[in-house]
Amino acid sequence: MDLTRELPLDQIMRGDSIELMRMLPPASVHCVFADPPYNLQLRGELRRPDDSLVDAVDEDWDRFADFAAYDEFTRAWLTECRRVLRKDGTLWVIGAYHNIFRIGAILQDLGFWILNDVIWRKSNPMPNFRGRRFTNAHETLIWAARGRDSRYKFNYQAMKALNDDLQMRSDWLLPLCTGAERIRNAHGLKLHPTQKPEALLHRVLLASTAPDDIVLDPFAGTGTTAAVARRLSRRYIAIERHPAYVEAALGRVRRVRPAPLDGASNTPTRREAARIPFGNLVEQGIVPPGTTVTDRQRRVAATVAADGTLVCGPLRGSIHKLGSEVQNAPSCNGWTFWHVERDGALVSLDTLRASMRTASD
Amino acid sequence: MDLTRELPLDQIMRGDSIELMRMLPPASVHCVFADPPYNLQLRGELRRPDDSLVDAVDEDWDRFADFAAYDEFTRAWLTECRRVLRKDGTLWVIGAYHNIFRIGAILQDLGFWILNDVIWRKSNPMPNFRGRRFTNAHETLIWAARGRDSRYKFNYQAMKALNDDLQMRSDWLLPLCTGAERIRNAHGLKLHPTQKPEALLHRVLLASTAPDDIVLDPFAGTGTTAAVARRLSRRYIAIERHPAYVEAALGRVRRVRPAPLDGASNTPTRREAARIPFGNLVEQGIVPPGTTVTDRQRRVAATVAADGTLVCGPLRGSIHKLGSEVQNAPSCNGWTFWHVERDGALVSLDTLRASMRTASD
DNA sequence: CCAAAACATGAATCGCAGG
DNA sequence: TCCTGCGATTCATGTTTTG
């Protein structure tokens, strides 16, 4: 397959992440989710990002060299991600205190624009056995747009719905990946040391992508991103170097059935709903010309003209313009500001529009 | 006073942080708490949905030319902190996604050894008014030892006691500094835009210092660190450049009486009610997207969408809203109304939620 | 005087489509 | 690419005003 001409959609490619990304065309994916290696100083031994062992020289220059090597690796894969990302695309990276600060600084240097840092609070973290620190009970995700001016996608209403109709916060409480979801080898041992829970990817993809969007995971591991993307009817491009992980991921993805269309959908943002000019309500007699509209407190009143403008003394304009003028406010959503009387009660224009929308479905 | 020979204990010094720290002798303080400028990079004004203006941080001290200038500043003050810190001392820095990644990377480069990153979860954050991002509901603290081999202080038992005899986690839920604690000027306006709550410093100092230890705050503001240090019978060295802040801090510290050292002054932790949105059951695969839910008599059916809403023909909404709509009832408890099939029998969502609760206990 | 409602505010990197 | 105009958007908490 010629990757420079055809995207390897819904595939899990085995190989080096940076090399393979270099073969992809620029501005081709909507979203990147990356869970990069961070095996810097976790064990007694030091490992480089490519998993090779560092001679145990415990001197200052060695520590510096080690950070420098990690930074170089980070800069390389983030550069490729940015090249491959569409102008309005976003990138997610997950990490912990060993590596996330370096990643965050480098992605800022590369021109990414951070939108949020998100805290995955683990409901069941591993305790700190030696009692020398706080229980390390979270990991950090960075969500960033390709650039400061990106018109990135954020499914605000879907996130709000997911959280009982309150704005979704930057701290997410989710359990670790355990039980049946955890992929194990023939001996019953976990195959991957840091397999991420599918619930985490569910929220990530639902927040920042639409169905059929293309999601790239350069460090795919056992294929959590690919599996969730498939279930939510997103396309994926997954890269993983370790053959055993690739094999597990292939089997895993094959077992996933995409949710039916309704299931993969989410609440559309208001802006995505069909636009209905106020004039339509006038034309269709829902708010006939000559109707009096007022604010909620009935402090100001205006008359509906046949062309859908409002008239109030010498003032005339759209529902928004007149709303802002009578309030002396810089702007106004006329749909929610103005009301008409129905059965003795005041009903907002927005309510009338909503009933018109469901009637036309 | 000759700072090179005598420590300015329990004083709030007015002046440039880096210059004054340079005059202090090396290895002289036990702990540093630093709340540096965040380099917020705001542009334009922001209005709430009610058109009121958000009072944003626009002080001179938070403006930097670019990332390079901010990094240089950061490297300079962190270098002095490290020089002044005792071998076994620790440093705390607080920041947000605008600056914390740069700070974390630089302090690693300087040889600090990160012990934890700690998340201050705000119980009452400002919402995201435009609905373009997740509510930015937390700030990040980095806790680091002077070096990898530091035998740093951690009051494990005190932290455990503060947390109902469970290990203290790396995520702390605390309210913002408001009400009587917030220092105001003669006009009743907040004096400092970013005054930190005393409860935060209480936990920081109780975790990582002993009575009579010396705590340095290079960006003291209105003296929160100094006030809490005094109440907990720690010594402090505070540096602040702005005369009005220094004046406020001096008066504030004077009013503090050291508490008896019996530990009775522990601030209690906030216990959270276990709120489980229906969306959690969807994310975690307990009720996967696409599942069909029905009422007990199977008279109406709906499909579960990925964001936790239910879809039924043209209707879409939360489990409660859709439940009331299909019944034509004013309200409905969706948890008990809707059921899914499990082993051929109908089980209410409420039952599934209950099993989820016990699993997480 | 009390209860209820209205108001105020917090480290904020806070539009978008169409012409 | 710039310009214009539509019209989307808030939670927890403390304080003040109103009935």
From TrEMBL, chains A, B:
Q: Keywords of this protein's UniProt record, alphabetized?
A: DNA replication, DNA-binding, Methyltransferase, S-adenosyl-L-methionine, Transferase
Residue intervals of the RAMA domain: 263-358
Question: EC class of this enzyme?
Answer: transferase
Q: Does the keyword Transmembrane helix apply?
A: no
> What PROSITE patterns does the database record attribute to this sequence?
N6_MTASE
- Show the InterPro entries listed in the entry: DNA_methylase_N4/N6 (IPR002941), DNA_methylase_N6_adenine_CS (IPR002052), RAMA (IPR040843), RM_Methyltransferase (IPR001091), SAM-dependent_MTases_sf (IPR029063)
Question: Which superkingdom is the protein from?
Answer: Bacteria
| Reactions accelerated catalytically | a 2'-deoxyadenosine in DNA + S-adenosyl-L-methionine = an N(6)-methyl-2'-deoxyadenosine in DNA + S-adenosyl-L-homocysteine + H(+)
- Family to which the UniProt record says this protein belongs: Belongs to the N(4)/N(6)-methyltransferase family.
UniProt protein name: Methyltransferase
- The source organism is Acidisphaera rubrifaciens HS-AP3
